[in-house]
Structures are given as structure tokens and as C-alpha cells.
Amino acid sequence: MTTADSAPPIRRGRGRPGHDQAAVLRAAVTLFNRRGYDATSIGDLAKELGVTKSAIYHHFASKEDLLRLALADALDELTEVVSAAAGDSAPGSAYDRLREVVRRSVEVLVAHQPAVTLLLRVRGNTPVEVDAVKRRRWLDDQLAELVRAAVAEGALRDDIPPDLVSRLLFGMVNSLVEWYRPDGAYDAQAVAAALAATAFDGLLRR
Amino acid sequence: MTTADSAPPIRRGRGRPGHDQAAVLRAAVTLFNRRGYDATSIGDLAKELGVTKSAIYHHFASKEDLLRLALADALDELTEVVSAAAGDSAPGSAYDRLREVVRRSVEVLVAHQPAVTLLLRVRGNTPVEVDAVKRRRWLDDQLAELVRAAVAEGALRDDIPPDLVSRLLFGMVNSLVEWYRPDGAYDAQAVAAALAATAFDGLLRR
């Protein structure tokens, strides 16, 4: 065990190396996803890591601070992807940009699966959660706008309402957090290609 | 408030009518989805309904009993849909049966959205949760088998692995629990049609 006031105490928990700030955050996200944010305490997290609560408070001010950092991990990446593709000044057709944002979103979801899982389940009323929901809504709005532009330019079919297309398309993308296995048969590139082929070209043999 | 030992005490909670067994179950599912199953106690549920804990125990043996009934609500419906379409003796082509199972799954998700939401988030180690995960896996296996059959009969493209097609297709279906709004612009029929058109025909204008 560690002492509460030594400098980087978490590194020595249970004698395992690498119990640093990032490792605590990873463990917190895993616990939040497994038990729910509300049901998880700093005490639970300390127990899971085999360290004292003080060792965690050495790095993080509060449980909500851990949540904020975990959500920022997912939100910052997704915001970058969507901003690059959805802005008015972005180059290329709306359809090309939509395909690109689908491809890159899949990459982010695969690379940051636990944090995105947490983000997609956020429902609560704490300021951190309210802010995350607001940022998610901004992303959803940008994506819906990009779908509308791809329909308007004539690339996508216009017999399905664009907001429904956007929900279905990114619903399929977001579903990855539920079923994707990093140790499975498919890497991010394979999933992104299969997903784009399914959504844009359709599953029917031609 | 109610007294703990009167016969159907929940009916009289806060003077509202209809606080019967089904209403308690609905409230439990809502709370489980909002806070997580682990973080929700029978006390929380009693408070939410404005009744005593005894009033709840009058109808349900335990918190796990509530979970079991809620999950059965979703699982029984989905099992019926999948069994009707995926069995060897089911009539019609695999492709027709796959379209039908997609359509009916959307209907079940819309009609039982809170219970299916709970089902899709089940992760825990209680016997009820382990059993639900097992039943979900059976459904997933049946659906993957149906997709394989639709590829084998030549209806669906064969350049995407069938197990990945199944994950993407039912990932899109399951995403409904996250974004569908019963008071929104689209009923189950409209969503089912848009989803099937997207997945099978694709979003590109032809």
C-alpha cells in the first residue's frame, strides 16, 4: 500500500508499475461504465486500484473531475473530427465530407471506446454532465446539417427525412461501443469500410 | 401516503390512481435506466412513487425481481420475433425473413423502449443479469445465422463478413433506444421503413 502524502503514491499501488494519473482515469471510466457513475465512489476506485483514497485525491479533485476529464477525452476528439468536416469552409462535397466524418468517427470510437461509451450514457444533472450533453447535441446538429447538405447537393436519396438519416447513420456508428471488441477479427479500418458500404451502398447484392 | 399492511396499498400513493404493479415496474425501469441498477434502491423507488417500501414489497420480492420482470418484458417479445423469423421451418426467403425481423424488432423497441434500454445495458453478475445476457446472445446468434443465410442465398452482398453485417444492422436497430422519441415526428412504421431502406438499399441516390 501507499502512504497518502508521498509524491506520486499511485505508482506504487500493489507493487504494479504505471499506476499514474492516466491509469487512474482509465480505471475510473471502466468502473463508471460497469456500475454507473452514481453508484461508483472514490472509495470503490481506490479499492479497485489497491491504493488509498488520498492517493487518488492527490491527482484528481473529485469524482466529477474524473468524469469531466474522461468525457473531454471523447468530446475533444469527436469535436475535432466533426469541425474538420462540417464547417462551411471545409473542402470537398458534403457527401465526401460525410463519408470522411463516418470513417474518422469509427476510428475515434475504436481508439477511445470506454470514454465514448461513458459519453453516450451520460444522463445526469451535474454541471459536467449537462455540459457534455450540450456538446453532444452540438455534434449531432452539425452531423444532421452535413447530411442535409449531402441530400441537397443530390448525392443522397431524398425520400428519407435527413434528420432520420442522420440518426440512423450515426446510430450505427455509435453502436460500435456496444459490440466492438478490440481483440476481435476487425480493426477500425475494416469496420469503417464495412459501415460506409452498408450505409451508403446498401446490403443488397447488385 | 399508504399504510404498509393494507391490501393494495400502492394504488393509493399520493392519491393518484393506477399505482398498481405495472406502474411500479415502469417506475423501476425508469430509475434503473436513469441512475443505473446498482445505484437504485427499493427506498429510492418508494420515494419516487410516494409510497412505503412495504407497499413495493407487497408486489415484488426484491429489487432483482423487478429487474427480472423488466428484462423478461423485452426478452420475451424479442425472442418471439426472432423465433418466428429465424427458425429452419420459417417460410419465405432468408432475406424476406431478415427484413421482417428488422421491421418487427423496430416495433418492439419502440413499444418497449425503456425495458429494451435496460436490457441493452445489462452487464452485471447477478443470476438475473447473467441469464439475460445469455438470452441476448442467443438472439444475436440467431440473427447472425439469418444474415449468413441471406448472403448464402445470394440476396445480400458477400464482400462484408456476415457477422459484421449482423452487428452493423442490429446496431442500427438497437440505437433506437438512444435517440427515438415517442412524441417525435416518426412512428415505428416510418422508422422501420427508413431503417430498412438505409440498410438494404443504401443512402446513395440512384
From TrEMBL, chains A, B:
**Protein name in the entry:** AcrR family transcriptional regulator
Superkingdom? Bacteria
Does the keyword field hold Ribosomal protein? no
Recite the UniProt keywords alphabetically.
DNA-binding, Transcription, Transcription regulation
Q: Which species is the source of this protein?
A: Actinoplanes octamycinicus
Write down the Gene3D superfamilies for this protein, in alphabetical order. Homeodomain-like (1.10.10.60), Tetracycline Repressor, domain 2 (1.10.357.10)
| Entry keyword Ligase | no
* Cited InterPro entries: Homeodomain-like_sf (IPR009057), HTH-type_TetR-like_transc_reg (IPR050109), HTH_TetR (IPR001647), KstR2_TetR_C (IPR041490), Tet_transcr_reg_TetR-rel_C_sf (IPR036271)
* Pfam families from the UniProt entry: TetR_C_24, TetR_N
Q: Which residues bind DNA?
A: 41-60
This entry's Gene Ontology molecular function terms read: DNA-binding transcription factor activity; transcription cis-regulatory region binding
What residues does the HTH tetR-type domain cover?
Answer: 18-78
